[in-house]
Amino acid sequence: MSRSYRVAILGATGAVGRELLTLLESRNFPIADLKLLASNRSAGQRLPFKGENLTVETVSNSAFDNVDLVLASAGGSTSKAWATTAVEAGAVVIDNSSAFRMDPQVPLVVPEVNPQAAANHKGIIANPNCTTILMTVAIWPLHQLKPIKRIIAATYQSASGAGAQAMEEVKTQARAILDGREPKPEAFPYPLAFNLFPHNSPLNEQGYCEEEMKMVNETRKIFGDQDIRVTATCVRVPVLRAHSEAINLEFETPFAPESARKILSQAAGVKLVEDWQANHFPMPIEASGRDEVLVGRIRQDISHPCGLELWLCGDQIRKGAALNAVQIAELLVEKNLLKGSAAYVSR
Ligand code: A2P
């Protein structure tokens, strides 16, 4: 008899939380019981799952009793507040926030890249940052053939990365501007409709923002390669839910665009979108709602003999967050790693 699991979604009412619900249903994850958890703001709200309406509960000390798996997407401070409680109650936590990603005790997993890392979990597995997930899925297959020395990334990140409220805000601001009214920024520091701005996460002494440093540090951890050089410029753009990235890769020796194309056309989680005649390449509207990372415009970098340029788009809520988390959960089920553990000790 196959096992089924008692699952809780922490942050069920958010943009990623709702996508988790959809994916658990559409991918037929073996669920014995599903608990929806959020703040007391949304307690009592009902969300549909498999033809039923499930009631959202306020997260509490006893919320994780008799839960095997927690899919957490309620922000870093909420994860920090509840992950240890969940693990001590016997659950495995797949955490979408940045709270535990760089903790050496916590595997940081992209199933297409480093599924083996999940086996070392001590109760918490971290889901990487969305931009890092999308980029690593696209470049890992190339790195397998010829190691990448250096990555230069520029991101064009949608509003969804800042949550459901931020997505609404872009629409409200667009309406306001079209009606000749002042757009009111709330979730973001500046108006995003008809505008863009460098990612507003905190800046370090070197002038890099947190989001950019996530791409640097998380890529190294996922690739298991502390020497790979990564630099990024992250920008928020007025797109609702899929991120885009311009990636420049430097290898030891030249990497023919044709071989990169061939590798990526067969790579797990990647879809090559290149119609040079029609000038049709990945676009956020075509990536939205899709599981794969769309990759195209693969070309030789004319400024460097060992350089390769590519362009990608991926659904930030799906592969950049909820889908990657559900794939990790499926991996745990497949490898029989979902037994619950009280071994994680927060430091
Ligand atoms: P709530 O709807 O009760 O605020 P998003 O990233 O789309 O903004 O969603 C964030 C998710 O995290 C929501 O489900 C939100 O619930 C939840 N959340 C935010 N803060 C807390 C908290 N302190 N405790 C529990 N859930 C929280």
Number of strands: 14
The ordered H/E elements are EHEEEEHEEHEHEHEEHEHEEH
Radius of gyration: 20 Å
Q: Provide the residue-averaged pLDDT.
A: 96
The largest pleated sheet is described as: 7 strands, mixed
Uncertain runs: 340-347
Helix % is 25-40%
Count of separate structural domains: 2
- Which descriptor suits the 3D outline? globular
Distance between the termini: 39 Å
What compounds sit in this structure? Answer: adenosine-2'-5'-diphosphate
Level-1 CATH class name of the largest domain: Alpha Beta
* CATH hierarchy: architecture of the largest domain: 2-Layer Sandwich
Enumerate how many helices there are, as a single number. Answer: 8
Descriptive account of the structure:
- With 347 residues, the chain is of the alpha/beta class.
- The protein folds into 2 domains: 2-127 and 322-346, 3-Layer(aba) Sandwich (Rossmann fold), CATH 3.40.50; 132-316, Dihydrodipicolinate Reductase, domain 2 (2-Layer Sandwich).
- The protein has helices at 15-26, 76-88, 130-145, 164-178, 210-223, 257-265, 284-287, 318-334, and strands at residues 5-10, 31-38, 46-49, 52-58, 69-72, 92-95, 124-126, 148-157, 197-198, 229-236, 242-251, 270-272, 293-300, 307-315.
- The strands form 2 sheets. Strands 3-4-2-1-5-6-7 form a 7-stranded mixed beta sheet, with helices on both faces.
- Helix 1 crosses helix 8, helix 3 packs parallel to helix 5 and helix 3 crosses helix 8 (318-334).
- Bound molecules: adenosine-2'-5'-diphosphate.
- Adenosine-2'-5'-diphosphate binds at residues 11-15, 17, 38-39, 41-42, 59, 74-75, 78, 163-165.
